[in-house]
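Subject: mismatched residue count in predicted assembly?

I count 628 residues in my input, but I want to confirm that the predicted structure covers every chain. Input:
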Amino acid sequence: MRYLITGCFGFVGKYLVEAIQRAEPAAEIIAIDRAPAPASFPAVTRAHVLDLLDLALVSDVISREHPNRLVHLASLSSVGRSWQEPITSFTNNTNIFLNVLDCVRKHSPTTRVLSIGSSEQYGLVTESDLPLRETSPQRPLSPYAVARVAQEHLGEVYVRGYGLDIVATRSFNHLGAGQSSQFVISAIAKQFAELARGQRDRIRVGTTSVIRDFLDVRDVVAAYLALLARGTTGEVYNICNGRGLSIAEIIAMLADIAKVTPVIETDPELVRPVENAVVVGDHTKITTAVGWQPTIALETALRDVYDFWSRASF
Amino acid sequence: MRYLITGCFGFVGKYLVEAIQRAEPAAEIIAIDRAPAPASFPAVTRAHVLDLLDLALVSDVISREHPNRLVHLASLSSVGRSWQEPITSFTNNTNIFLNVLDCVRKHSPTTRVLSIGSSEQYGLVTESDLPLRETSPQRPLSPYAVARVAQEHLGEVYVRGYGLDIVATRSFNHLGAGQSSQFVISAIAKQFAELARGQRDRIRVGTTSVIRDFLDVRDVVAAYLALLARGTTGEVYNICNGRGLSIAEIIAMLADIAKVTPVIETDPELVRPVENAVVVGDHTKITTAVGWQPTIALETALRDVYDFWSRASF
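Triage response: the counts match. Full output below for your records.
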């Protein structure tokens, strides 16, 4: 089996490559990324360093590689950054996906594509929508969310109109060792590690009342492989824990892990123009369809993230 | 009042400019278009010939012009072409709008923007959805429709997140003298004119059973001016006739007008990969909000289109 993974050298890519190599040691893994692999990255079969906005380069790689499976991880996935740079966010989500998809249509139409989406697509959530199912309405609230909805819609159109084989996800917040500190849990865990070392005296956060559904990245990539193997083309699946936690609860759990009593301060820079109060998903569809369910307790996941930052030198 | 109109030199732009000049002779009209004005186009205050994908040029024009009102007519609005060139269609709908919007945010945030959308956004329509209201679900079925949904979502996000003043439409099929023959009614009317002159012996069409809601372009631009004056920011309004007609019925009406009995032939090239069976809208929202309603009978509109092609030299 030949896998092509876009955005391969990022946080999720590393876990995905490791999972593929464990499950299928003979698999070929073709990486696409904007930057070369970091030193610690597992060896892959081939790597193409390119910008997915460059259609000619994408076309060239897909027509030469003809992957059996393509996992489109590449994304500028920060909601906060999408408010600061909406055009950059949009093109580096929707347009890169459209480029990839159109090259698959032209040059490798039997490739099975996994289109990674986001729980942010649900956007404005009312009490009666919770927990979110795949049939819940999408009312995107950020430039990032709009881009992800458009990506999913493009996937549907390519399945119906051109007969491509695409399975889509709406992946909820994930966490894990190695995640960038631009994401909320990683940012907070990093500050706890600094606090425990005496490198700072308080934790700065955005809105702590928001409730999110967090999943360990190892469970996320297990879901991706299960969907590639057994997901139904044209369908979209929530990938979530099914349980909501507020940022305040996460902070309390990290305080226990770090054995500190932090001073918490609101950083207005981290408060977003528009924010969903509660985002919690229902994973019945994927569990029924392919047997996947979360396996890693959030306490374990949080401890791993904290340990990562405790070991990190900064 | 200073108006900036993108895609100004197209079919709708001409009618919009005429309507503004009739209603408000002192208005300044700033045109943006990819190509210079055709010879027959009414005089405008200033014209900027540029590609809206060129962000630096868009930024320059919007920061210098500071329009009171911006009507974003620019669009590659052919559904058929969006299947042939999905990337070109998407960028020339969503990305051009995002460029315009982000320049308004940065350089002219009090400009009132009219974002033109399409009935194609509704996509897959079931019997129970009809007639389509603004609350009906959007299930886009073509690359063009996906791009229009993304455009509308971006508008909503810019209203909520950045406080811009944007009113959106979902404009149903329009028709009128001067419309390109890549659109169905214009294409058929042109063939009838050719038939009446003995320049062809049959009418070639796509799927004639599809039912659409057609509106005269003069009613369309009247709705645009009413919404600019009195529409509510952040809201979207159907602009439609409220009455559905099949392509077969349109053909029968044109046969009466042209006084011919045509041979009808299906052209497989004109049949789309995925097609909505019925698209009929409900204009209660705009009628209630701003008092607009259709005034021109479809028979009159069709006769004008037929007369246009009868007079045309080709």
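Chain A is about 40% helix and 15% strand. Marking this ticket as 'not a bug'.
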